[in-house]
From TrEMBL:
<dbReference type="InterPro" id="IPR005064">
    <property type="entry name" value="BUG"/>
</dbReference>
<comment type="similarity">
    <text>Belongs to the UPF0065 (bug) family.</text>
</comment>
<keyword id="KW-0732">Signal</keyword>
<dbReference type="Pfam" id="PF03401">
    <property type="entry name" value="TctC"/>
</dbReference>
<dbReference type="InterPro" id="IPR042100">
    <property type="entry name" value="Bug_dom1"/>
</dbReference>
<protein>
    <submittedName>
        <fullName>Tripartite tricarboxylate transporter substrate binding protein</fullName>
    </submittedName>
</protein>
<feature type="signal peptide">
    <location>
        <begin position="1"/>
        <end position="21"/>
    </location>
</feature>
Amino acid sequence: MLGRFLLAAAALLLAVPMARAQQFPTPGRPILLLGGFPAGTQADIYWRLIQQPLAAELGVPMVVEARSGASGNIAMEATARSAPDGHVVLAATSAMLAINRAVLPSMPIDTQTDLAPVMSLFEVPNVMVVSAEKRPHFTDCQALIGAARAAPGKLNYASSGIGASTHLAAAQFATAANINMLHVPYRGGPFAMTALYQGDADLFFYQSGPVLDDWRLGRVRLLGITSAERMPTLPEIPTIAEACGMPGFESTTWYGIVVSARTPKPIIDRLHAAITKVTDTPEVRARMEGMGFTMMLGGSEAMRKRLAADIPHWAGVVQRSGARQQ
């Protein structure tokens, strides 16, 4: 009798973790990992990097979908309107969460009340990129500023869209340098880079990852980076503050995970723990830092505070740059 009792007790103890694991997510029902921008972007690369280990950690299938359009608003609205069970998860950027509301004439949701932060992931600065072939006289930031002052309104800068971080970083730079440049928006980073290579664009503030190979091959010059300090993975690239004589200049983009605001806290905590576990590994860290990201695995409250501070900051930048869409 005692033996049977001990066996039954052991079986019960073993069953408890399994029962808890099955409470969320729903067994067999996949989690949809949404991205607000096209496949191949930095957020999409991250999702696909952690897709399999995250599925194993949560015990359910994972589906990655790049639901692009409307500067990320389509994906944000789909997440906000989804069932509050953690089965729709969005990798959002600070541009989607903080800048869109200042740039776009209307928003389908309120990013502070309709979405719940799960965790912050990483931060990435932009680099000032010029073509080494088409603009050989732009040897450094001071040379570019000098050219802009000599011919006000003649130089142009590309962006991946009105109100994108690539636009507002350049607008901040122009304001700080007291120069007048023409803004030319494109339908995404790859199109803007093509314009740069063809000589149609004078400069472009872009994330470092997509341009590192061309920089190493000498096709482009990186005149400065928009982070407050030099990146450990690119120590030879000076900050904009250093290279351009602009103390305090900083303009970065951060990524975070959000779900529907109605999602219960235990589900948010479960997602946070699982994503942290699969992300905070040497392999994932090395991959993301190699693309120019700085890991910043923070909790939901830290992300909420960061968003609350960023909204008025970017509203001011948008107002000064005139980036608001009509």
